[in-house]
Write a structure and sequence with these properties.
66% of the residues lie in helices and 2% in strands. The chain contains 14 helices and two strands; from the N terminus they run αββααααααααααααα.
Length: 320
């Protein structure tokens, strides 16, 4: 059980609401414009006299044609609530690379990994005998979903895949469940205001207190799991981690999973930054692109911490 279970409360609460890629909403989906239009036309037709069956049939056909046209128009305008999807080769490529690495380039150690997992389950706050660096990495993976959500939700389309189930399951499976959402989500939007976001996204994911809380949680892991306490023996801890990578499939996959999640987050940083400064800055578009790219590259220096710091320091979305 990861220390990040505290963040599960927010994610599970959001699961009670309907999540879309542009945020978490608490209202159910309404009927489409075409369906409501059809119902209204049917009511009018039922009230009006239709003396001849042929005339009634012609009116019904006309009503269906008008409703279909109305629904098609609403889809073109992006107002329909049905999910839409696109394919992103960058996130898909990271997904394939992680799968290949996990199944073909890691040591096969089912018994060792099973015992290590059982140690985490039986003593989550003090897993005896498990390398301290790996424990920090393992728990950092439980915090990454909220960081990814902070980046993915503002640029998400209203017609995209729902982020909620992917975010919750990725607490335990990392990029293996984040990848399907990022790979097949709808094409990200290029403009977004704070008022367009749902309550949860606006008051939680965009909340600086929450953002700084994520940073504090990440920095607390080395203290909580003994790295700082045993800093005099850090070389021994590091050697133990290297040995773990050569003998444990779980250790290898978890370590690379964290790096892949961080890379996926860095890919989303430039667009997130441009959403916030694109229409309000006097700087040229080329300069904004360069700055956004440099910020994204800087987040790769410290896995998880770099992205969390960006989320805390990034500009706010425009109000209107």
């Amino acid at each position: 059980m990861r220390i990040a279970l505290s963040f599960m409360l927010s994610a599970l609460l959001a699961c009670l609401w309907q999540g879309r890629s542009d945020g978490f909403v608490i209202v159910g989906r309404s009927h489409s414009a075409g369906t409501m239009h059809l119902q209204q036309q049917q009511q009018i037709c039922n009230k009006s006299p239709c003396p001849h069956p042929l005339e009634r049939s012609m009116k019904t056909a006309k009503t269906c044609l008008q409703a279909t046209t109305s629904k098609a128009s609403s889809v073109e305008d992006g107002n329909d609530d049905e999910p839409n999807w696109d394919f992103n080769p960058v996130f898909g490529g990271l997904w394939v690379a992680l799968l290949i690495f996990s199944f073909f380039l890691t040591p096969y150690s089912p018994d060792f990994d099973k015992n290590m997992l059982w140690t985490f389950i039986s003593s989550p706050t003090n897993p005896q005998g498990v390398n301290e660096i790996f424990v920090v990495i393992f728990n950092s993976l439980g915090i990454m979903p909220i960081i990814i959500a902070c980046l993915a939700v503002p640029q998400g389309s209203k017609r995209g895949l729902p982020i909620t189930p992917f975010a919750v399951i990725s607490i335990f499976l990392g990029y293996f469940t984040t990848a399907p959402f990022l790979t097949f989500r709808a094409k990200p939007v290029e403009k977004k205001t704070l008022s367009e976001m749902a309550w949860f996204s606006r008051n939680v994911l965009e909340n600086k207190v929450v953002n700084y809380g994520v940073i504090a949680a990440l920095f607390s892991l080395p203290y909580f799991f003994g790295i700082v306490e045993n800093i005099d023996n850090f070389q021994g801890i590091l050697d133990g981690y290297k040995s773990l990578l050569s003998t444990s499939q779980l250790g290898c996959v978890s370590s690379v999973d964290l790096l892949v999640l961080n890379a996926a987050g860095a890919v989303m940083v430039p667009l997130d930054y441009k959403l916030r400064v694109g229409d309000t800055s006097d700087v040229s578009a080329d300069d904004i692109d360069k700055k956004a790219t440099m910020i994204a590259l800087s987040t790769l220096l410290l896995p998880a911490v770099g992205l969390a710091t960006y989320c805390a320091w990034r500009p706010k979305l425009p109000e209107d």
